Amino acid sequence: MFSRSILRSFTSELRFTARSSISAAPLPQRACLHQTSWLRTTQQQSQSQSQSPNPESPLGATPRAQDTQPEIQQGSKAPSTPTSTSNTIIPQTRADVPIEKQPVAPNFDTPLEITKSLMSSLPHLAGQTPHYVVAELHARPYLLTAGDHIRLPFLMPKVKPGDILRFNRASAVGSRDFTLKGSPYVDERLFECRVRVTGTESEPLRIKEKTKRRQRHTKTAKSKHRYTIMRVMDVRVKTPEELLQEGAVVVEDTENTTKVEARS
Amino acid sequence: MKRLQLQRWSSSVLSPRARAGSRLHQQLYSTGLRLQSTASPLQSETSIPDDVEHVDIGDPGMMRHVRRVHKRKTQLQYPSPPVDAAIKSPKLAALHARLYLPSRLPVQTLARTLVDASADRNADFNNEALATLGHDLLTHYTSEHLLCNYPRLPLSVIFAAMYAYVGPKTLAAMTKEWGVDWATVPGGEVDPGLLQFKRIDPGTKVDEVSQLQSPRPYAAQKGWRMTVSSKIFYDDEFGDAIKGSAASNEGVTTEMASATFVRAVMGAIYLHAGRPAAKRFFEQHILSRHLNISELFNFSQPARDLARLCARENFEPPVAKIVSETGRKSRHPVFVVGVFSGQDKLGEGAGASLAEARERAALAALKGWYLYSPLNPRVPSSMEEEGAAPWKPAHVDVGEVIV
Amino acid sequence: MPVKGIRTVASARNGVGAFILQCKRLDFHYCNFWASSRGMLNFLTKDLPAFAREHPQIEIRVSPRPAKHPVIKGHYINGHEKAICVRNLEPEDIMKKTMILKEASGDKLKRTKKPVTSVNESVRGIWSPYHGDLRGV
Asked: Where do the Ribosomal protein/NADH dehydrogenase domain residues begin and end (chain C) (predicted)?
């Protein structure tokens, strides 16, 4: 028997318990950053990379997925992590992916090496706002500036609205007059580009009529793809001081190092 | 610095039920009194539903009907929804979660921010006080952001930028983006998750300023010139004349009620969760909006202004020179004109005639001057954070050119 | 007055600072007697509580609609409404449909060719034929 009043009361009750439990308890961190940056934050716990870290207690005007540094939820969400080999750590968000299929995490055993010429020209690039980044995702370039709206040409798996990703592969980072070109990619420790997943969208239904010769039968093929939509939160080039603080090493110039190119 | 007792401060805006209060309070209010102590105790009416609870009527349908009738009666008693309705409103809970409001901010206060002064005259139950606080916070944070980031902006542009960030139009748009609907008519039986205000009568002139309320001397003189700097003293944050308080039974526009709601939310966050949360809320909801300040300028005579500016700054007087041109004799000529001060090129513009190109070049030069922004500016309120670096004085400019 | 200010409204960029889920309300309609609602009834009793707990920002309404097929309706912040009929669907499929409604932005479906839309000015400026060296012809 399904009476309306019972269901009503049930759902309304449920809403309230839900709200209080969510806002009171420390939420499982949903921010799904790229594995690389996640690893780095675990390795270099002490350094705060970007904005001021959020004060813990006075609360959450911060959306949950908004911390720049994801907390590590050890075993709270997925208690059965796949058997991790030696010292590879698997983020909880990718726990369902087999370990051999996970993207290879860059292991930063060597500190970031900056040549002297780059060190001298980087302040010019970092000081000139706004910045753009040519981020590569599945070998496609996306020219992004802060606040842009992206509709990826595919549906990104295992992301939820509100998640924050960090694009770590860029072929160029630049401002109006200067460009840092990668060969082929700019080192991901030199810049920050964060995007927030805002939902999914689909295209209008496409109907294609398939016909064959000498046959009266017509087949209609329908397709309606779904796409992930995102919003670029910030595009930032790190200043030399920040890089040095994060443990970068200045080395002598060599052949084919990345350079900041000024506009001709 | 001594720690602020937020709990104590915020308790005055909280309903007693939401207070981490004593048992006495809870007992007192379990009878369904209206919350604040200033309200006169209405024992006779409120005791009725209590009795109904205890009377055991055999027929459950009848019982339900009787209860509903009594509930409706108590709801209709007040112009705004009772406090205990806030806990039961799914709309309100959803709004609380949607805005990621701190858990320290109870839904009861959120419900109070949705009640406009035109719906409930009682200052203990409407959002007027919270909105006053929120408005001051919003304008304070916005103005310090603008002044530290663009120290050379002319005053009229600052007024326009303030209006674009925290003006009533923007705040009303934010209310819509937060998914807040409004009730057609306010009342005690309305869902507390709806914005409640009394609508203004159609045909009323909204923009009419009651001159008597203005603090400006000789305000009645129509023809008198009002300087921009006098607006700092006599007018509000957006350079508008201050309007007098509305008459007692007059309604408000949807825009004004929505703006008051957003301000009240800001004030409520400040009271319940403290300054850092309020500032974060401001940064995430206001500063994250897109505003191109260079589009806010409206010059009447840029070439003249630029000449005055160069004279004031002891630059060489600006000279316009043709950088390149094409098709002078054709139907669509293009001239690229640069404005030079000595060897330095101040600005450049392209136009279909020499005068137009020169005008645009002067405009570009002026915008380049006024839109100067220091590297990594800090705002004074950033000093309130713990462990902030020592304050370096922000750049203060002499101001715009006066012609 | 040498310069005047032009009044505009700063435009919203949802997700740059705060992120607000665009779906604000989900209505679930069911019928107690029709067999096409069987999966929906299962879903309402089994899965909906967990869904509501995970998404406190969505207001959820459940109401009967006798002698009709079960329907989920999503109400969005921009005022639009999307409805999906879930007759004869299993609870898992209904959950998928609910997720579609939850993640949708509420806008009209459009076919776009460019992946990135921007309101910012071009960072490097627009190329001009009147600047730079003259190439010899």
From this structure: 32-105
